[in-house]
Design brief:
Layout: H1 2-5, E1 14-19, H2 31-45, H3 50-53, H4 55-64, H5 76-93, E2 96-101, H6 110-118, E3 131-135, H7 141-146, H8 155-168
Parallel strand pairs: 1-2, 2-3
Helix pairs in contact: 2-5
């Protein structure tokens, strides 16, 4: 995995992460929450990406000169479009590492979230691209099938010797 994460363009990557929690609030277990969180983290780290990721909101900001009084109702489709624009812009100018933990705990249609992740331009998330995705999940068949062509790590393969050593001590 290090060989894939090690091939960046130049500079330090922005890091955005999201952990699905199936026992928490709706935002912590939904695709809507994932998109809002990732967008917020990346745009907070680099506000210069706002005009391309959120062009309508940015033009309202430019017209008004501030954000005060602006009300925005987020729709999933708007967030998906902003995420796609962000990915395309980041590919041109930045390095971003997106960590997603517990994909299997997403309450939404999990095939829908797989479509979103797999819809990213393959060149944008290739081994040498500006965007890297690291996704963790229980080994459910739908995820293994969806990501069969991507590099994977099976934690049990990395820890089995340590577990055997621990168990054999007693």
């Amino acid at each position: 995995m290090g060989k894939h994460l090690g091939k960046w363009k130049t500079g330090t990557p922005l890091v955005a992460m999201f952990c699905f929690h199936n026992w928490e609030t709706l935002l912590q277990k939904s695709q809507f929450g994932l998109l809002r969180s990732i967008l917020y983290q990346v745009l907070k780290s680099d506000p210069g990406l706002m005009p391309s990721a959120l062009p309508r909101l940015w033009s309202k900001f430019v017209e008004n000169g501030s954000c005060s009084g602006m009300k925005t109702t987020w729709k999933k489709s708007s967030l998906l479009n902003a995420f796609a624009r962000l990915v395309n812009q980041v590919e041109l100018t930045k390095n971003v590492l997106i960590l997603i933990d517990g994909l299997d705990e997403c309450d939404d249609d999990q095939f829908d979230i797989l479509r979103v992740l797999k819809s990213l331009d393959p060149t944008a998330v290739s081994a040498t691209a500006g965007i890297k995705l690291c996704i963790s999940s229980r080994p459910l068949q739908k995820f293994e099938s969806a990501f069969a062509d991507y590099p994977t790590i099976k934690l049990q393969d990395l820890t089995s010797d340590d577990i055997k050593l621990y168990v054999s001590r007693d």
